Task: structure prediction
Amino acid sequence: MTARAEVPAVVDLDRVRKEYDGGRIVALDDVTLRFGQGESVAIIGRSGSGKSSMLNAMAGLDRPTRGRVLIDGREPPSAAHWTRLRQSSMGLVFQSFLLLPTLTARENVEVAMFPRIRSVAARRARADELIAEVGLTDRAHHRPGELSGGERQRVAIARSLANDPRVLLADEPTGNLDSRTSAHVLELLMDLHKTRGMALILVTHDPAVAERCHRQIRMVDGRVVEDRVHGGEGRAA
Ligand SMILES: Nc1ncnc2c1ncn2[C@@H]1O[C@H](COP(=O)(O)OP(=O)(O)OP(=O)(O)O)[C@@H](O)[C@H]1O
Ligand SMILES: [Mg+2]
Result:
């Protein structure tokens, strides 16, 4: 518990409540959490417990009904600020990959750099580096439809790294993959977390995935019912 207090927070949730349908559904119920730089955190809990709602709030994709989300100690004041933050310091990975089907693997990664890197050559070179980092150089010119699930997710991970995020938010990144492919993608995420020193916050149903993270947070009915740090791997220095 003490380890967490020592590192500066990258994301803070301050009494975050998220309601849907005019309050009939409470997806997040007064959630207060602090995520430190370089932490690896698993968010676990049954279907409908609020895990995706929490991640979406942390990425500014969905605004809380009440409460605040702070990035580096400050509350982004507008949607435009959130967009810039997602382009500059956050990486997002989803269960369903969300790749553009008509673009090649490399082009999918390049697209994420449009707002930040103006030179075509620089974008291309950077995309090639990232594609190599996820081990897909020989598949760089294929479209998503020609790639396996694990390969698609590796492209999505390369894309999420396009702007050197300090936080990677991943919502069931291995949820659509078989167990062997899932293990491979998990290794990749843990490696990237360690070598880049970025915080990794991932939603998972898989206890084996959760155990690999330094910290586990369990949700039930929109509330945090357990927040546990154990001495395992995955904590960046
Ligand atoms: N756009 C929405 N409109 C109405 N209700 C929603 C909406 N999004 C989520 N909910 C509800 O909010 C609650 C929490 O949903 P959430 O998607 O955060 O759960 P989850 O823990 O990610 O579940 P899963 O493991 O199935 O992905 C659920 O009851 C869900 O039905
Ligand atoms: Mg979900």
